[in-house]
Amino acid sequence: MPTSSSMQALYAPSPALGVGSPNLGTFSPRPEENAQIVSLLDILKGPEPLSPSKKPALDLRAPDYQSPASSSTSARIPWAALDGEGLSRDVLLMSDPRLIAQSLTAFHRSILDQVPENITVDFITGSDIHTHEQQSLIPLFGTDDQPHWLTKLLLVQVLGADTSSGTATLASSQLASPGRRSADDRGNQTSRTHSRSEVISVWIKVGELCRLAGDECSWRAIAAALCSRPIARLDKVWRRVDAFALAAVESWVYPGSGGEVLTVGEPKLIPWGGDIKQRIMENMMKSDGSEQVIKRDSLETVRRLFETLRTSFSLCPRRTHTEEGELSDDIRKMMAYWHDMSSGGGGTGSLAVKFQRVEQFMSLSLAAEPRRKGLFEPHYWSRSPSTHAPQASLLPLLFPEPLPSVHLVDRAQLLRGRVDSDASDVHLLRGSDGHLRLDMRRGQDHAVNNNNRGPAGDLAALSRGGTVIPVYNGDLLLVVQPGVSDSNPSSRPSSRAPSRPPSSVVDPNEKNLSRNPSIRVKPGTSQGLERKPSAARRNSLPSLSQRQNFVMSEPTSEPPLRVLVQAGTLNTLVDILVHGLRNVSVSVADDNGEMSLREGMTRELVVDHLEFAKVWWNVFRSFVTPLVFFELLRKIYITAQTTGPNPPVFDYLQVINNRREVLETIKEWFTVGGGTQDIVDEIQLYGSIRSFLYEAADHSIFQAPNFTDPNVNQAWLSLQQTKNSLSLIFGSQTMRPPVSRPPTLRATANINPSRTRNLGAREPPDIDHISPEDLVDNLDGMACATFTNVTEEDLYITADLLEVQTADRTGWFSPRDVGATEEAIEIQTMYSHIQEVEQSSMISELSQDAVYRLLPPGIRSCIRAYGILRKWLISKIVAPRLGLKVRQARIELLVQAIEVARLRNSDNSIKLAETACVRSFVESAITSALLSVESRMHHRAWQNVASGRGTHYDSFSTLLAQPFTKSISIHDPLTVDMGWLIERMLEVIATQDVIESSTLDGQNLVNFDKRRHLCNLIVKAPSLPSTRRRVQPEELNRRGFERLNNIEKEVLLLQFEHRGIKDEAVREAMQAPVNGNASARKTARPFQRLVLAQVEKNRRDKHLRSRLQKEKVLEQSKTEKRDDLLTEPCDHGNLGPQFKNNIGTRKACVKKTASELDFTPSGKPSLVLSLVDAQIAQFINNERSFLFQLDTEDGGHYLLQAMNKRDMTKWMETVKRVAKMAAKRRLTYLGNSPKPKIADHIHNQTTTPSRDPTAVFGVELQFLLQREFGSTQVPAGTIPSIIEQCLGEVETRGLTEVGIYRIAGAVSETSALRDAYNQGEFPIQKTTDIHAVCDLVKSWFRVLPEPIFPSTSYHDVIRAMQLENLDERLTAIRNVVQELPQGNFDLLKRVSEHLDKVTDFEEHNQMTAEALAIVFSPNLLRAPQNDFVMILSNMGHTHKLVKALITHFHVIFDEIDPEVEAHSEDDYDSPIPEEDEEDEEEQQADEVDQQTHYTPS
User: Fold this and answer.
1) How confident is the model over 822-866, as pLDDT tens digits?
2) Is 271 a residue whose pLDDT tops 80?
3) Of 642, 1016, 1330, 1494, which has the fewest Cβ atoms less than 10 A away?
4) Packed helices 1307-1318 and 1330-1342: angle between N→C axes, nearest 10 degrees
5) What is the model's pLDDT at position 922?
6) Are 604 and 585 within 8 A, CB to CB?
7) What digits encode the pLDDT tens for the residues 379-392?
8) What's the rounded mean pLDDT across residues 136-156?
9) Which has more confidence, 1172 or 1030?
10) 567 φ, ψ to 5°?
């Protein structure tokens, strides 16, 4: 106890409460005399639920949120499932949230009752003697380093593996999307994302119920888990969380309209300690220098924290009397369960043991939902602008086009290689302006829609042109828009002197200029930006003013020019984002073409900040990481300082304004730029921003006398308020980042009733009784419903993925060899191609999945819907026994549907087949179905269709030369085709990323124009080709999904048999009557022109792929030559004399034949490496020559050294060939490998050790060894005779048996052998089934009372298997194995050696080390007490252990020779020298001479 009076006063206990106060422990404050006393059960029940008519938006107590099983007391908790699998996700979803909340409150009430009423600092700091009471206080506190047990339970349940076994079947309850559980029955397995979102929704409801009931402890613990970074960053999961639950958790975090944050309901029953205990201890540990004296401010902080804690505990009721039967049995059972969970720290599984801090769960969070943004950033700056033509990657994507569509590049010029590939050209997309001005045909639409910036409509944003203006010494390129002269009021204000209005202020009533401003700047590329003489610059460049404090000599009547940022350095772009374009003006020529030299006759350049920021926030992660971006902002903030010893007031105001703009930019990043998601994804960024906001070091400023000026003080106070506001936003949004839900579109009410019936149908359309317009509407309804799942974020993620794939020159070539026959050639589309192309090694070197598998789910659903509709349409065309007339009518219907689809996207009905338009989803699906191989087989039907139209059918353009459909009743544009959109995105992506600087020492410029084009294309994607006047209602979208689902069920198992289709087509052609002469019976193949175009594309792709691969080989050869120069041997002067004598002389070597080298080794090898799936590559090292690295499939990395380069090359080629050949052979039997099963690892009952004098099964190992040896001293190396006999029998006649240890023997024979051994016999004979012998071995290990690895070694083994480094892992395994009892060690060594022999015959018995590990791991390593959670979590580690015992047998079990270890490095003290080049040439000449004169015998 401290001796000072102040410290004694601090440590004094609280005064005792009055004795005469009745029921004071129950009420706080004291109730009035007439107040009704509330029982504990009423408190736990919380407020009564409101009626549905009075239900507020966020009231989670409403009946809608009660579990369906809440009406039945026995069904409120699935007790059988809870006892079997714990609180799994299925059990939680089946349980009543109200009962869970009540039981948590009751449990924490019992904890609070154990806390003394008078809490002292000694009790908090742990210096008191009441250790039991201190331990009871732990469940009321929780921090990030020591989380509350309930917080940890939620983290494990949400982020860990689902332990549900399926026994708890959920009630089928449909919730509105988003946040609905699943469209299927709850008995079916849902996705992990949906499962996590449902679990989060339930816990939010439980937390809200606890908050309303006054249980602050449970509420804060649940909120700490749900608002932690590992769970808060799961964006896809939070999108599917119930909307009401999401609103509730946002109310916990975000302050209300009055600035206050939601608190616990009154009266508060249970307090929450949080991190107060930790903060008290930290302040108590603070001392002043070397003296152990607590600082005064620390003492005040301790006193304030302690009084807050003591008051919070004192105001809560204590020791409330609970009447008999007041708490139901369900609540008491759950309280017991919570007690077990609390005692175990939040769980008993390996995850709960391994992860002790909240931050450690980030690895599980990243595994559940990896980072999806910034995939291209590592490759952005590594690509040189002049490596190869940027559009070359588009060549394999130039598919034959059935009908013309809008493009952003000229396909014909691209095929001829004439597209300008200048690295500095940023006008590539502007050259196709004529193709993009299609929406002029709907002038009335553009007159209504004010969002379109010009007559070009939505796609016109991709074709901006104008005069390019370089500023800031070429670090920034600006472009003036044609026809735009005034600035947008949303632009950043000018940073000029506040004493006069900035020139960017424009009178809104002022008329715009009627012509484009004439600026004397050479338009075009940046090649004209080199430094020129002053006279030349005066004639070609505008008059630029870049002085920091520029003030015009006289006001100008000309409005400022609005410009767009075309390219710039990274620092300049960030500066534009923060401060805008400052102090830049240009001189503009008059009507006579003369340029005034007067400074006042200039026009200021203004950047539209809203447009620039919108593009920046969506695309900046492609070329800079969020951490680097924040450091650039931080640099601008810190460097904003005054200069001079006594800065004027104006300088202070300017510095404060600059810092305020930085803080506003960071705030904009948090709120609208996705910054909070960046922060929760990266711990380093989180720490940097937190230190910036909460530490004063970065916010200091030089304070001179003028700093006390009132204007400066007011500006400084405003800056501090902005920083505090930013800190609040940072704290709240990192706990609950804004959920990026897809935008909700309001449906139009006045829709044609007949069209509503058509779109509202659930069944597929009857293709024989539907009009072309209705068919198009029906198919577009399904396409529109599918497109609603696509968000802008999905398109940006897709663009990022496509950029990485395009960066690989061979990334878009299909690995599949296309058939040579024209009849079987498929007309390629983006849909078919993207499902074939393998992902580039720049994305992942480990996976070989198709690019399609990496796309976001929304994009994949569109591609999948296309495949379903295409297959369904083909099935309607080639249906068997249909008849020529019906088939011809169906084809004609689909052709007219294409006409309708194109009419709805373009208004030129006369030249329908020649007018380019935005391709619709309906057109793409129908066209692909008609062009399919199956459809083209019906020659006669196509001939009749073309004959009826009076056209040819060698292509779609000729077939639609005379369209039947002249007008349509519905003019709304159709849903854009996802394949068309991906193609256009790739055309933008193919342009250059970086523009070379015009100066020699300048930095490369970021091609921001490319990012703007990509952003505009993505933003306009849902409304292309023009703004949709009608939006499909949500009900029709749901019907569209149902219709698509029914079509999928119809064609799911459908397969097209080409032989049968062709025979029926021939039969129909022979039976059909032919009008005209006899030559009409000779039919031509349909769409032959498109087929020939596809054949030419296949030939071109094959040639181009071969050429690019040769270029890659050539580049690799150059790289190897460069590496050879780097790996030259060391200087001969440093070599020993034994090497100096051999330099320059011919080495004598004795050559041996293969038969002489094929000998039986005299001993066991010390190291055996498996070459299956091994990777080998040259290893560059400056100390040793001819090194190559071998990476085995088990994660081992081995460095090997050859004598010379030729030997090294031979070794590498041989290893590659053997590894590839062995891997291919393994694939032939890999499918027969056993699959891991949880049931194999679960032991139903504990085996009681047998003491039978003859039994060998179920006997303790040590007892059995002592009994068989006849002494208590068993020598090393002794193993049970039954195991020795069985293993010997297998090694004698079972190593080549297919499926050894996998295929089970006869149960009766195995039982008979077991009984015979238990009776002391040796029943195995040569005729005994070898599989029964194997079952005997596995059965003996399974009934062993204690496994080979005792329970005390279990956790050591698991920790060893969790090590990433192979050497460290093997060393840890060896240490554990060497510490086993002698009998266990000898038996494990014998079994591992036996399994190693089995793998030597892998090609015969088809049993890999992985397969044997799956079979034996359940019997060699068991979880303590048969813990199910531990079994489930560590099953993979168990398999890896046994596999390591097999593949690294010698490393783990062999003894280490000290002498060998001591001299192991002596042989490698000197590197192996290279042979002289002349000697090497002589050896090669000798080898050639020997091959020439070699005559086979």
Assistant:
1) 778 889 999 999 999 888 888 865 556 788 888 988 899 999 999
2) yes
3) 1494
4) 60
5) 94
6) yes
7) 887 765 444 555 67
8) 86
9) 1172
10) -160, 160
pLDDT band of residue 656 (cuts 50, 70, 90) is very high
Q: Is the backbone of residue 811 left (phi > 0), alpha (psi -120 to 50) or beta?
A: alpha
CB-based burial label for 94 (10 Å; 0-12, 13-18, 19+): buried
Mean pLDDT of the chain: 75
If pLDDT is split at 50, 70 and 90, which confidence band does 810 have?
confident
Type of residue found at 988: V
Over residues 895-904, the mean pLDDT reads 92
Do 359 and 683 contact (CB within 8 A), yes or no? Answer: yes
Q: CA triplet 1254, 1258, 1264: central angle to 5 degrees?
A: 55
Residue with token string 């193709």: 435
The answer to whether 785 and 858 have CB atoms below 8 angstroms apart is no
Alpha helices, H only, 175-328: 192-213, 216-226, 229-232, 235-239, 243-253, 276-285, 296-314
Are 25 and 318 contacting, i.e. CB atoms less than 8 angstroms apart? yes
Answer whether residue 453 shows pLDDT above 80.
Answer: no
Phi and psi torsions of 1260, nearest 5°: -60, 140
pLDDT at res. 1466: 42
On whether the CB atoms of residues 662 and 633 are closer than 8 A, the answer is yes
Cα 679 to Cα 666, 683, 737: the distances in Å are: 12, 7, 10
Helical spans, DSSP H, in 1270-1320: 1281-1293, 1307-1318
Give CA separation, 1415 vs 254, 1230, 1239, 1341, 1409, in Å.
53, 15, 12, 12, 10
**pLDDT of residue 523 exceeding 60:** no
Residues counted in the chain: 1497
Residue type, 1457: D
Tokens for 1391, please give them. Answer: 């079994």
- Distance CA(1265)–CA(1258), nearest Å, equals 13
Count other C-beta atoms under 10 Å from residue 1187's C-beta.
18
Q: Are 70 and 94 in contact (CB under 8 A)?
A: no
Residue 1393: pLDDT over 70:
yes
DSSP label of 461: G
Q: What one-character-per-residue DSSP string does 1243-1277 give?
A: -SSPPPPP--SS--TT--HHHHHHHHHTSS-PPTT
What are the backbone angles phi and psi of residue 1173, rounded to the nearest 5°?
60, 25
